[in-house]
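Late entry, evening session. Most of the bench is empty. Finally got around to the prediction I had been postponing all week. Sequence below, unchanged from the version circulated by S.P.
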Amino acid sequence: MAEENKRTKFKLNIRLRTALFFSLVAFIVMVIGIGLGYFNGNRLLYNTVTRNHFEISKQLTAATNRMIDEAVKKVKVYSNSIFWKLSVRGANLYYESMDPAAVKQLLLERDKEWIDASPDGPLIKKYLGSTLSRRLAKITVEDESIAEIFITDKEGGLVASSRRTSDFYQADEEWWQEAFSGGDGRIFIGDVEFDKSAGVLGITIASPVKNSENEIIGICKAVVGLKQFLKPLQGFKIGETGHVVLVDRNGYLLYHRGIEPQTARFISRRDFQNISSKTKRGFITTDSYMHNKKIFITYAQVDNPLFLENRILWWICLAQSAEEVFRPTKRLLLQGALLTPFLILIIIFLAYKFSERFIEPIETLLAATEKVGKGDLDYEVKVKTDDELGILANSFGKMAKELKSSTVSIERLNREIAERKEAETALKEAYDKLKQLQTQLIQADKMKALGVMVSGVAHEVKNPMAIILQGISFLEKLYPEKRKDISDALRRIQNNAKRADEIVRGLIDFSRTAELKVRPDDINSVLSVSLDLVKHRLEEKGIEATLELREDLPKALIDRSKIEQVFINVFFNAIQSMPTGGKLLIRSYQARRRRRVRRRDRDDSEAGGRPVVIEIEDTGIGIPEEHMDKIFDPFFTTKSPRGGIGLGLSVTKNIIDAHKGLIKIQSEFGKGTRIIITLKTVGG
């Protein structure tokens, strides 16, 4: 019964896995397909809408250019009127007998009189009541696009006007000077501004008035209302949210439904850079002052030649909600998402039915594996198919037979391999230990031979040195009032004899076998006492010594006098490496707990069993890297001939080795040296 339940469960599992596998593959393919379709569709839609909107913007730009050209053409036609030219010529005749300074003075006085005059004053009536002024006023009535029009003579004085102007004298205005252009004359168009005398927001169009000899005799100015140029834009709409916007060179609105011109910015300065620099034909922004959502913007510049000549920059922009622009691709994505579950259900059903075809031979193989797994290597697999499952079943039967014949030999080989590995490990450990002992014995023999030789030489030299020193003392007492040259010679002999005696004593110390009197002692106390002994030398050299001693250290197992000798040797080496002063740092602490690699040999002892560490660090000249391997060798020194014989560190290492401790030197040439000494503690 249990076997049948197991097979039923297997059948369900493989069907479920097959269905899930095909469903997962289909889902991944559909997600990738929908994702790529959405991405490529968005990109295609973006490019298409950008191109279409740009073409529409260009068409609106062309219509605006036509409106500008029509307005300029009107002003030029009016400027060529014979009646206007006769009136201007008559005004110019008035100045013929006057010098330029007097003309300007006259016009400035009349300008002041004009500004101060009342609406019914004689000066106002004289100019606004003339026949030409009445004709100009009639033009503004018949042509709603022209809010104001007037004419000046060649000196800038007013000749006639459709209404009272702000000033009488116009030659100091930019538009007049640009239109006059030093007597050459040209059409001038100004940017949008509020004209005080006309009382409208518009643009200025100025045209020279010329006689039959093509000489400038006056200037005509017309103020054309901005609304005249907005006619192609009004009422334009794309879709539900698309509309047209006109902005000036600074990004301020000249046209937007429901917004007064030049009262608000269209988009942020940063996004306006895309327009003014023409870096993108279309872009999406959320930094719009008119909208609280993403908008899609395309644009085209009003490229009328007169606008470009007079440095006027207008931009016609098409703005549409980004959501509306990309709505088709979002709809496609939603449809794909809704269709996916139905397709997956169909695939699951087909996969479930398809799995029945190969479940039966797999069940047979499963039963065979259970039999073989229980040790029945004679079980025969019966699968009657010609596909890969049949080949697998036959191979399984052969494998069971071969497995039966090879099981015994494999077990025997495994035992032999295990035994050989154990023997190999033991031999390797013994070989490594033997090499280590051999190295130690060779070094010990060398040091023993060197010690015997040094001891013999030192004892042979010591006695003559003692006799020489006694003889010098005898001579000093014998000749208390000796000559200066004799005194100097005796002093030199005495100094060199003392140095030779010092070398001999060092050799004896080096050759003497260390006889330690080990007992628990406070290592911090030893450090402090040793430092006091060299304190005067530190002060002489200007060296600043710093102690960082941990207070709760366990007692170290040491021969106090020997360890003091070690510290003093190290201190003197540090002092000699800092001839011009420096810093000396002395630190003590307890080593961290060690966990050894070998099994059954893990050191989890208490703090008392851990060694103490002493670090002595100086800021001296350091040791060259090529000398680091020789610093503990006897008679090796980097000092001058009078600085030492090179036994200090050798003796120091002998003492530390006798304590079964460690000494390590770290140095960087030109920066300083650190000496690390490790000593055993009670319980270690």
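Two things to note before I forget:
The two ends are 66 Å apart (CA to CA).
The chain is about 55% helix and 15% strand.
Will write this up properly tomorrow.
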